[in-house]
Specification:
It is built from ten helices and 13 strands. With 326 residues, it is an alpha+beta fold. The strands form three sheets. The protein has a five-stranded antiparallel sheet with strand order 11-10-9-12-13. A four-stranded parallel sheet has the order 2-1-3-4, sandwiched between helices. The chain is elongated and about 70 Å long.
Length: 326
């Protein structure tokens, strides 16, 4: 009779705090079990932002612990450990932090009451005007392409009902021309490691830059609003490097949906935001449910398979837990 394998001694804990509706329990159970197989000395606890989970907090408090949460911790109150969590961060602050760290970003400025007219020689002929309010801008609302000379401050009460400009400042941003069809890269990163890299692109003729101001400003420019857009999983090493650099610029946020644009004329990359609150867990988030249904199970599986997302996540979490649990 073969002797039973001795059970590994738990030496440290990993607490995963999931946000119901943003990530499924099945995803983190899968990833947590992989962490245990990689390193049986790590005890894994999966809790939610909705409850205090006193028992899990008490168990984790007995040993060095790493607390990982894609979003704010909510009601969960860890009693011990190194804590990494996501949360809302103004887009302008994201850009500022990345620029300070040497990540190439589009020139960006808040549109204020005393803002002077924009100089096209500095900003280019066209710019993007976009909202800072996270709640109303997720679907691309309020994002416009404009001639630089037409950008002016508008008081919040003067925007139409429901416009994001009523709920937060607007910003003007250098326009990065990605080609005839609007395109972007979305790289989901965990502690700087890419879990997938998706190229999203429009297949139409793009913007007619000679059109009237009214036509240009009504033209869809946010990738979410481009009809007939296509998607493909694509690994461009320089895009992945930029996503990693974006993590290093904002290291306290563990999970990021990094959006990168490539200027089709120069080939230069620009990071426009990192989505730090992370509703970007498209594997199971409610916000991505319609997308998953329309794409079908094969594409959903391909997202996991491209860079072995769940296996990679498990290795990253095990490594960070071993290195930083306290």
């Amino acid at each position: 009779m073969r002797a039973a394998t001795p059970k590994a001694e738990i030496r440290r804990h990993l607490v995963i705090v999931r946000h119901p509706g943003w990530q499924s329990v099945e995803d983190w159970t899968d990833i947590g079990s992989r962490v245990r197989r990689i390193d049986p000395s790590i005890g894994v606890h999966i809790v939610t932002t909705k409850d205090e989970h006193a028992a899990a907090a008490e168990a984790a408090a007995r040993l060095p612990t790493l607390v990982f949460s894609p979003s704010m911790l909510g009601k969960f109150k860890p009693r011990r450990g190194k804590v990494y969590h996501g949360g809302p961060m103004p887009k302008f602050e994201q850009v500022r932090r990345m620029a300070a760290a040497g990540v190439r970003v589009p020139q960006t400025m808040i549109i204020g009451k005393n803002m002077p007219p924009l100089d096209p020689a500095r900003w280019g002929e066209f710019v993007i005007v976009k909202p800072t309010d996270i709640r109303t801008s997720s679907n691309g609302d309020g994002i416009q392409l404009m001639r630089a000379e037409r950008v002016r401050y508008i008081a919040p009460e003067d925007y139409p009902e429901g416009h994001p400009g009523r709920f937060g400042p607007m910003v003007v941003q250098q326009y990065i021309d990605t080609g005839p069809g609007v395109s972007t890269f979305r790289v989901l990163t965990l502690f700087g490691q890419a879990l997938y890299s998706e190229y999203i692109y429009g297949t139409g003729e793009g913007i007619d830059y000679g059109a009237s101001d009214a036509v240009i400003e009504a033209s869809p420019i946010a990738i979410q609003n481009i009809e007939g857009r296509s998607r493909a999983f694509r690994y461009d090493a320089d895009v992945i490097d930029m996503a990693r650099a974006a993590h290093e610029a904002i290291p306290e946020v563990p999970l990021k949906g990094v959006d990168v644009l490539r200027d089709h004329r120069t080939g230069l990359l620009y990071c426009i935001e990192v989505n730090p609150n992370c509703n970007a867990w498209i594997f199971s988030s409610k916000i991505g449910e319609a997308q998953r249904l329309s794409q079908g199970p094969e594409y959903t599986q391909a997202r996991k398979d491209q860079l072995d997302a769940f296996g990679t996540a498990a290795h990253v979490l095990a490594d960070v837990t071993r290195r930083e649990a306290e």
